[in-house]
Structure formats: C-alpha cells, structure tokens
Amino acid sequence: MVEADGADALTMRRLANELDVATTTIYWHVGNRAELITALVRRHGARLAEAPVEGDTARDRVLAVARLIWESAITHREITRLASAHGAASLHAQRLELAMARELQESGVVGEAARDALRAITACVGGFIVTTMLDDLVPADHRRTSVLADLDDPGLDPATREALATSSDLPSLFEATLRAVVDSIVPADLTANAYL
Predict the structure, then answer these.
(1) Helix axes 111-137, 89-106, angle to 10 degrees
(2) pLDDT for 153-179, tens place per residue?
(3) Which residue numbers delimit the HTH tetR-type domain (predicted)?
(4) Residues 6+ apart with CB under 8 A from 38
C-alpha cells in the first residue's frame, strides 16, 4: 500500500478494509498508526538485511552493505520517506548498519573507530539518498541544475558554469564517492589503516 500509493495512503481504515478486518482489530493487535509505522519500518528493515552480503574482502563487503542501503532506499522510496517522516530511519537501516559494523570489525576497525567509520559511510550514503529523493519532489525550475544555470558569476570559468547547470550521473558519482570514503577507512593493507 505504501509503495504503491505513498505514505499518506496508510490509514487504519484503509488497512482494515484491505485486510477485511475491523479497524479496532488493528488497534488491538498492532496499536495506533505510529506504532504500525514503526512495526512496518522494522519489518521492512529486517527483510532488507536478509539479502546476502557478498565480497571477497571485508572492504568489498562494507561497500556491498553501503550499496544495499542506497539501492533499497531508492527502490523503496515511499517506505524510506515514511521512515524518515516518522523519525524511524535509524530503525529502518538498523540491521544493515549492524552488518556493516560486523564487516568493519572483520577488517580490523573496532571501538570508536568503527563507530566513526560507520557514521562516515552512512552519512555519505544518506547524502546521496536525500539528493536523489529530493529531485523527485522539487519542481524542475527549483532543482540545483536549474538554479545554478541562472547564475551569472564572472568569477567562474564558463565551462564550470555550464557544467554546474547540467545533471551529474548520480549513481556513478555515488559509487566513486563511496569507494573513496570506504578506501580511506578500510584500506587493502590493514597496516596502513589510520583507524587501527
């Protein structure tokens, strides 16, 4: 329902109708709408975490988990929006972040270093998620490329000005940025790891 019609479509009455039960049944077994949303977000996050994390090295697997967070947020935009709007985004990604913490630990990044590494990686991923999802909602004339296209700054090289007015290949930019962040935290040669 949420994926098909958006977060606002999730009402107790509509859910009860689709399940062919009384509205009070949902309140009795699940709770109010906020509790229903929390349960839905937790369950969806648990399902996402069932995906296998593949990679030959811990660094490859950290990248794989980060990509899984990105891809699932974009694929399931409405659930991502619902989780964010109700302050449950951390619950949504909880199990995937735990998987990432395990892979960081496997690579030798532990304790406060693992905490900071996980937060750096998820902040990178989160920034790309927000950018992607905002483009869905922002009118075309208010998008970053449109707004920058209208600026006339003589201090910018014309080629830079022209480039700023065009869209980036966000998935490619995500991949390059993510790899740079992860490589700086989990290098191939663990003796060179600044976090150890």
Answers:
(1) 140
(2) 888 888 888 888 888 888 999 999 999
(3) 1-48
(4) 86, 88, 91
pTM of the model: 0.75
| Neighbouring C-beta atoms of residue 138, cutoff 10 Å | 13
What the block records as the tokens of 85 is 């709007």
- Tell how far CA 189 is from the center of its chain: 28
Q: What digits encode the pLDDT tens for the residues 92-140? A: 888 899 999 999 999 999 999 999 999 999 999 999 998 888 877 767 7
The length of the chain in residues reads: 196
Instruction: Please give the C-alpha separations between residue 129 and each of 48, 68, 84, 132, in angstroms, as whole numbers.
Output: 16, 12, 11, 5
Q: Report domain extents, the chain.
A: 52-188
| CATH 1.10.357.10, domain 52-188, yes or no | yes
Give the chain's count of helices (H) and strands (E): 11, 0
